[in-house]
Write a structure and sequence with these properties.
Layout lengths: L1 H49 L7 E12 L5 E11 L6 H11 L6 E2 L8 E7 L4 E6 L2 H5 L4 H18 L5 E6 L31
Parallel strand pairs: 5-6
Antiparallel strand pairs: 1-2, 1-3, 4-5
Length: 206
């Protein structure tokens, strides 16, 4: 009887030791998993602190566009938004976007340009503060003609550019990369033009 009892005790102890060993094993695995998850969280937090936050690259800015009034010969101001790239070293894209918006007038306003006008490119000559607009040479055949039309056309662009971009002091017009003596037979288009704010309805200090 003592031997049988001793055998049962040994079996019970062995079973208890086995169960306790399983408990320790699974507890260790649980701690490992928790440690790994904690380590991942710490790494993620450190990386987020080191990685710079991405900011918006573009912003909306309001520009002042000047159009000829449908009821008078004065140029009136119309504010319109444009999407501008922040910290942009080169303004060529902004100049062209501004001009492409300018040639499409809002209601009750006139843009003195042919509807099929096309702007090929725009570039800025910094040392003389001059903006060069390169139109497609089809403008030469599309332009209606007349000295008044030429003056309105020229100062429509010159005044708008010089008022909105302080770095621009004069504008030169070229056509498909070439200078032309005249647009329709009156103005000398080989020279650069400076602003003439007498066309504007509001008073502007030069």
């Amino acid at each position: 009887m003592n031997k049988k009892r001793l055998g049962k005790v040994i079996i019970a102890l062995s079973l208890a030791i086995f169960v306790y060993s399983l408990y320790l094993f699974f507890k260790r695995d649980s701690n490992v998993v928790n440690s790994v998850e904690k380590a991942k969280a710490v790494i993620k937090e450190e990386v987020s602190d080191v990685t710079p936050k991405r900011e918006e690259k573009y912003k909306e800015e309001t520009f002042k566009f000047y159009y000829y009034d449908i009821n008078s010969s004065d140029m009136i101001k119309v504010e319109r938004p444009l999407i501008k790239e922040e910290e942009q070293e080169e303004n060529s894209n902004l100049y062209k976007e501004f001009l492409n918006t300018l040639i499409i007038p809002p209601k009750d306003c006139i843009a003195p340009v042919p509807k099929a006008i096309s702007i090929r490119t725009v570039y800025y000559i910094s040392h003389i503060k001059r903006l060069v607009i390169d139109f497609d040479d089809s403008l030469l055949s599309l332009f209606p003609g007349g000295s008044t039309c030429e003056l309105e056309f020229v100062y429509f662009f010159v005044n708008n550019l010089c008022l909105n971009f302080k770095e621009v002091k004069s504008v030169l017009f070229i056509f498909s990369g070439n200078e032309e003596k005249v647009l329709s037979g009156h103005l000398d288009m080989e020279r650069a033009f400076f602003p003439d704010y007498s066309y504007l309805h509001e008073k502007i200090d030069d």
